[in-house]
Amino acid sequence: MEKGYPNHVARKKGGLVTMPFIFANEICEKLAVVGFNANMISYLTTQLHMPLTKAANTLTNFGGTASLTPLIGAFVADSFAGRFWTISVASIIYQIGMISLTLSAVLPHLRPPPCKLGDQVCEEADSRQVAILYVSLLLTALGSGGIRPCVVAFGADQFDEQDPKQNTKTWKYFNWYYFTMGASILVAVTVLVYIQDNIGWGWGLGIPTIAMFLSIIAFVVGYPLYRNLDPAGSPFTRLLQVSVAAYKKRKLKMVSDSNLLYDNEELDTAISLGGRLLHTKQMKFLDKAAIVTEEDSVKSPNLWRLNTVHRVEELKSVIRMGPIWASGILLITAYAQQGTFSLQQAKTMNRHLTNSFQIPAGSMSVFTIVTMLSTIALYDRVLIRVARKFTGLDRGITFLQRMGIGFVISIIATFVAGFVEIKRKAAASAHGLVDHPHDMIPISVFWLVPQYSLHGMAEAFMSIGHLEFFYDQAPESMRSTATALFWTAISAGNYMSTLLVSLVHKYSARADGTNWLPNSNLNKGKLEYFYWLLTLLQVLNFIYYVCCAKMYTLKPIEVAKKESAHESGQSGVELGNRV
């Protein structure tokens, strides 16, 4: 019996019936993460009475740790634990962290006493109370690292690529995965933040903690329905083995016929259940790892000297994905400005809906999320059907084309943002408010809606295309690791934003005190220049992406057709034409 998905089991397990169980886990994880992070600075400063700089550093350290843990979770899943058990254990770890955070918000002795009326200096959290916070944050970061890269790959695993009734469902899954994730984020930044600010942190943290508990039960209950792929060992070890073998044989001459390269179907069975990768002509120096010499044993090869074509192509696939991965960083850099400078713009503008109610500046991201959700729904229900008539593809357009559309929309978003900033400053000047950064400028905050909405539309195209690209083009045994790259691109984009802002702030400073990005008075800055710099960088990045996409080689797969090939001993070849 073949290791992994036996034929008689694969037909019965997986499919759409598993989605409620998987999505429940993802929704509650996002409720917990976003519901706390969106308002964490408030919790640290008002509940634990941390100084602003210390609170900011805590957030930075937590964010940096959380951005690295998906790589750890993906490694564990792909190497030995499998995706189901990684998600299950990670969810429990996350649950413990959330319980700890909730208890610290509820139990009086786990946080400093409330500030007394008239006190200038409040009692800061002691070392024990801070230690509980740090341990709780670490547990949530570790738990999130096991959930994020695995749940998306695990969900896509439920659709059998060799089953014609299921293999076209994967692209739909990515759309609705991102939709449910966005919907949970929308609830977190509205309902949960409101509860935290107006009802209390006990309820604000307790609700996602309870939801997480229920999601773990739902996810585990669905176990009999899941298709579970056995882990195939450390993918990093295999990549390293190919690299070492190619280096050891670097002086050998290439064989004249690629059919002479080493192939061992039995050896590759555990890591190529969906089909073996076929030889490609790029990066021929790596092919030397598959050249058989007199020193090599073909029956029990030393994998540090001899590797199969499939394993060599695994490494080639990872290398080929690198440039496409890098192209997504700058889009996240542009997107990140919504939480920084766009938010600062909103703070200076008229946010009143009525005389007594005004939109919180931090809630402007709702326009991004709502637009993203609307675009996903429109794309799935309308745009795909229209595009299908022209392209003939079941998914409408390829994921590379989808990413390209996202890049173009993001360019428009930052370009428009620059002109909106000019209008905002003109209003400040017209009303004599240039020197009054804390006074409200009589211009509606809804002028910012286009840039927020365009970023949401760009994310609906680019981010989902990016995620789908990683899952589809990664070697089958490395899909958790590949989807973790999606999160590392987000992390790199945020770090790039920090670097870019720092460089612009430093080198745009003048002797008279002016600066493109001033520390205190945005009205005297040149934020529009910064937005247009981002626009220019994104145009260059788009040109780079188009070149990468044109040169990109889709992974070619030799797929064993489940019934006909099994009976006739033949196999079909699929040259990456799923996109």
TrEMBL record:
The keyword DNA repair does not apply. CDD domains: MFS_NPF3. SUPFAM superfamilies: MFS general substrate transporter. It is a multi-pass membrane protein. One of its GO terms (molecular function) is transmembrane transporter activity. InterPro entries: MFS_trans_sf, POT_fam. Keywords: Membrane, Transmembrane, Transmembrane helix. It is found in: Membrane. Its main location: membrane. Gene3D superfamilies: MFS general substrate transporter like domains. GO terms for cellular component: membrane. The chain crosses the membrane at residues 84-110, 131-156, 176-195, 202-226, 357-379, 399-420, 484-509, 529-547. The keyword Membrane applies. Belongs to the major facilitator superfamily. Proton-dependent oligopeptide transporter (POT/PTR) (TC 2.A.17) family. This is Putative nitrite transporter. It comes from Morus notabilis.
